[in-house]
Amino acid sequence: MKELYRSKGYSDEWIEKRVRGIAIRDELTDEWKQRGVKTEKEYGILTAEISKATFGMTPSEYQKFKGLKQENLRDHMNDLELIFSMLGGASTTMIARGKDAKGFEENQDAAKVGGEVAGVVRKELEKRSGKRVATVENYLEESEGKMRVGLKNYFF
Q1: Which residue, among 101, 106, 117, 125, has the nearest Cα to 53 in the 3D structure?
Q2: How many Å apart are CA 68 and CA 136, to the nearest integer?
Q3: Over the stretch 77-129, which tens digit does the pLDDT of each residue have?
Q4: Percent helix, strand, coil in the chain (nearest 5)?
Q5: CA angle, corner 27, sides to 26 and 31, nearest 5?
Q6: Which residues contact 67 (CB under 8 A, 6 or more apart)?
Q7: What single-letter DSSP state applies at residue 8?
Q8: How is the chain split into domains, by residue range?
Q9: By C-alpha distance, which of 49, 40, 31, 52 is closest to 102?
Q10: 132: pLDDT strictly greater than 70
Q11: Residue 110 · residue 46 · CB < 8 Å
Q12: Rg of the chain over CA atoms, in angstroms?
């Protein structure tokens, strides 16, 4: 996996976040499976709940926002977008376990709350930094170097 991203020109730092995000997503989907989420449609709805609460957009809305067609959305996220995506997924996993969520509806509630946790933090960062976390920039149009320069304005 790492070599594939490296061959596409991604930095080791970005790859580290992306691979960690994949692991968090796998843990979440394994949790859903164990908790009675059955169909791909249900997984899609739960994912959309997390994304909507985290970023204010469903994954399909987010793809349109970034100008993507069939490309993987997360492969076109900057560092902060990946971090908030991970936070939404990890929070959902923790909440589902804490509430012992069973079945689709209880996991849907956990997904909303998990996404809200990440959304609250995102909104606070945006308020304090004066910049949006979700950006239209993506790896189709912007080099990672340019995106990293822009991210430095968040912290320095």
Answers
A1: 117
A2: 10
A3: 999 999 999 999 999 999 999 999 999 999 999 999 999 999 999 999 999 99
A4: 75, 0, 25
A5: 115
A6: 136, 138, 140, 141
A7: T
A8: 22-155
A9: 31
A10: yes
A11: no
A12: 16
pLDDT in tens, 18-59: 999 999 999 999 999 999 999 999 999 999 999 999 999 999
Residue 70: its H or E element: none
3-state secondary structure of 140: coil
Alpha carbon separation from 11 to 2, 6, 17, 20, 147 (Å, rounded) = 10, 7, 10, 14, 12
- In a 13 Å sphere around the CA of 133, the CA atoms on its Cβ side amount to 22
Contacts of 94 (CB under 8 A, 6+ apart): 114
Count Cβ neighbours within 10 Å for each residue of 34-72 and write b for 16 or more, e otherwise. ebebeeeebbebbbbbbbbbbbbbbbeebbebbebeeee
